[in-house]
Amino acid sequence: MSAKRENLRIGFSTGAAATAAAKAAAIGWRDGAIPDAVTIRLPKGQELRVPIAESRIRNGEATAVVVKDAGDDPDVTHGARVGATIRPTASPGLLIAGGAGVGRLTKPGLVLPPGEFAINPTPRAMLRESLAPFHEGAAEGLKATVFIEKGEILAQKTLNPRLGIVGGLSVLGTTGLVRPFSNSAYIATIASALKVARALSLEEAVLATGGRSEGFARAARPDLPEEAFVQIADFFSGGLKLAAKSGFKTIGLAVFFGKAAKQALGFPYTHAHQSELALAPLFSALPGVPPRLLEALAGAPTALAALNILKDGGLLSLVVPIADRVLASARGFVGPGPRLWARIFDFDGKSLAFREA
Questions:
Q1: Are residues 164 and 197 in the same domain?
Q2: Where are the strands (E) in the chain, listed by range?
């Protein structure tokens, strides 16, 4: 069901869970008994054995439920109950539908058009492959309805509402597996948000590093709709490159002082595990910085402590050239195309610097 990878367990995707539930239900519909586990084929050819947590057969249809195991990834859907109901249809073929807890798309720009259930192409392909033996060549077809228990509630903890996916979660997965702390999954989320903004003909994107910085940015830019604001977390270069590739004419950066310092230093990825907050070297490159300040900054344990040193010394104006350095780093990642701006906030949301280039 899951495997070890660098001491972290690899789990399986929502799409794999839905496929396993659908296959188990199809077996029950055909044979009159639903197995305790099924084996499904993943997109890259591996096989995955998935246990069935609950099942029932009644009124000519069969339902099975799988408890999603995301391994050691901090996935909001870990432990979610993903199910599928199989029932016959008068017309041949397979109809895939979303039930309770599965979202429906309302905005353009994603991989499926508005109006479709949020069951992505790869999970749809997995469902079609797994269910083909149960209906191909038969006079009647099958309808597979995928559902996620409490999906409407869980979806509020995701970007689905921002992406215009209403009513529940998305059924996702490109490999069928969930690798712990997947950078590629977050990058894909950023790309999806940017696609929605471009599909709405927006020409300016504001890249924030988190929920609080986004909130302050939205207060500073009430002229922009919520779709213009995209959280990129620590993916400084990745977010910028995606925004530039998407064709935005203006790209803004809304960051707290600590992240801004790392961006000014040119780190493409600003997580604490991969980028050191070296404030003294950063400020030593600025003109007119007194030696005593460099000594104090060298001993500052956190970005907040460093900001308090600047504030107490009446030197908050030094944040402005930091913003210039942020823009210089950003320009190096996106090239000469889009207009750029950067706004640096303190930890209470006060704007310390705004620069554009």
A1: no
A2: 3-5, 8-12, 37-41, 47-51, 54-58, 61-67, 81-89, 94-98, 101-102, 104-105, 141-148, 165-166, 168-169, 177-178, 204-208, 229-231, 250-256, 339-345, 351-356
What is the sign, positive or negative, of the torsion defined by CA atoms of 280, 282, 285, 288? negative
Give the other-Cβ count within 10 Å of 211's Cβ: 8
Domain co-membership, 226 together with 282: yes
Say yes or no: 192 and 173 in one domain: no
Last residue of a domain, one of 178, 207, 223: 178
Question: Residue 4 pLDDT more than 60?
Answer: no
C-beta separation of 62 from 55 below 8 A: yes
Distance of CA 5 to CAs 11, 70, 179, 187, Å? 10, 13, 8, 21
The model's pTM is 0.74
Structure tokens at 116: 């479709």
Q: Are residues 297 and 351 in the same domain?
A: yes
CA atoms within 13 A on the CB side of 327: 22
Helices (H) and strands (E) in the chain, counts: 12, 19
For residue 101, pLDDT over 60 is answered with yes
Mean predicted lDDT score pLDDT of the chain: 92
- Which stretch of DSSP H or E encloses residue 279? helix 279-284
List strands edge to edge, sheet with 8-12.
3-5, 8-12, 177-178
Domain boundary among 178, 203, 237: 178
Separation between Cα atoms, residue 201 and residue 198, nearest integer Å:
5
Residue 322 neighbours by CB under 8 Å, 6+ apart: 257, 260, 261, 264, 282, 286, 344, 353
How many separate domains does the chain show?
2
pLDDT digits (tens, 9 = 90+) for 175-206: 998 877 667 778 988 999 999 999 999 999 99
Considering Cα of 84, then 87, then 89, then 92, what sign does the dihedral take?
A: positive
Range(s) of the domain holding residue 60: 3-178
Same domain, 128 and 266: no
